[in-house]
Amino acid sequence: MPMIILSASVFAQGIYLRAGGGYGLPAASTKLGEQYLHAEVNDGVNYSNTYSNKIVSGSYGSGADFSISAGYEFNRNFLFDLNVQYLVGKKYETSDIYSYTGNSYSGTDSQISSTSSRGLYFNPALVFSVGFGKGAPYGRLGAIIASPKIISDESSYYDLDGTYTSDIRWEYSNGLALGYQIGVGFNWKLTEKIDFYTEAGFISMTYYAKDGEMTKNIQDGIDVLDQLSVVQKQIVFKKTYDPNITYDPSQPLITGRQASPMSSVSLQVGIRFLLWRKAE
């Protein structure tokens, strides 16, 4: 994760701004779903069924990130920085697809879901630099506070007996995720005020959404979202709840909370700009 670090020099206290970005790969991956395919062929003489199933694993914390940082250098070895990062998560696709091919007709019955995350991360951290010169290595340890949104687009297509299509979007949000981040990197001095940095980092975090809301429901090209009751398009996730509760159509559905993995291993690059520095 981009951050502000101690630049190699003979100066002490200082204030920095940083901006950068990078990409994170999934860490501590868990099963997110499956890609299931069933293909049936019947030409009147030969008949066959083909099946395939692929497990989709990953973490919604993987993807591209963009960040800005500001920090204060206490001395040539220690610094406090605050990083704000925006995540554009990788999309994960799960599916259940059946296809039929025959002499008189062919068709498909498919359900496909594409799920990803968006959100801001706040990352206060301590940085320790152990080197000086044009390339200064450093280590970083900090907390992660985030409130991401999980977005799931669900599409269906059926044309075995008539044609039917649907396009639904669910958004899961309003929860608070807490985690930690560690990182190591190098700060490369370009000028007295500008540095280039490279960093590898690890984030450990799990997210529990508080609410779910259906924000789109199009059936055969017609928007039917306003025709649905509240219980059909809103969800409240709770740690504990009564599964025997009688549901009110005018109230959100209440169900148990679900864990969304958000851990990642990432590489970031960026530029640091020195705003002010005090000589020893």
Kindly describe this structure.
The protein is mostly beta strands. The chain is built from one helix and 18 strands. The protein has one helix at 230-233, and strands at residues 14-26, 30-42, 47-58, 63-73, 78-89, 92-102, 106-129, 135-146, 149-158, 164-173, 177-189, 194-208, 211-219, 222-223, 234-238, 253-256, 259-261, 264-277. It has an eight-stranded antiparallel beta barrel with strand order 1-4-5-7-8-11-12-18. A hairpin with a 5-residue loop joins strand 9 (149-158) and strand 10. The chain is elongated and about 85 Å long. Residues 1-11 have low confidence and may be disordered.
Mean residue pLDDT? 91
Give the CA-based shape: elongated
Q: Got a strand count?
A: 18
What sequence of helices (H) and strands (E) makes up the elements?
EEEEEEEEEEEEEEHEEEE
Instruction: Report the major sheet.
Output: 8 strands, antiparallel, barrel
Widest sheet, order of strands = 1-4-5-7-8-11-12-18
- β-strand percent reads over 45%
Structural class, by secondary structure, is mainly beta
In the predicted model, the low-confidence regions spanning at least 5 consecutive residues are 1-11
Helix proportion range: under 10%
As a whole number of angstroms, the C-alpha radius of gyration is 25 Å
- Put simply, the count of helices is 1
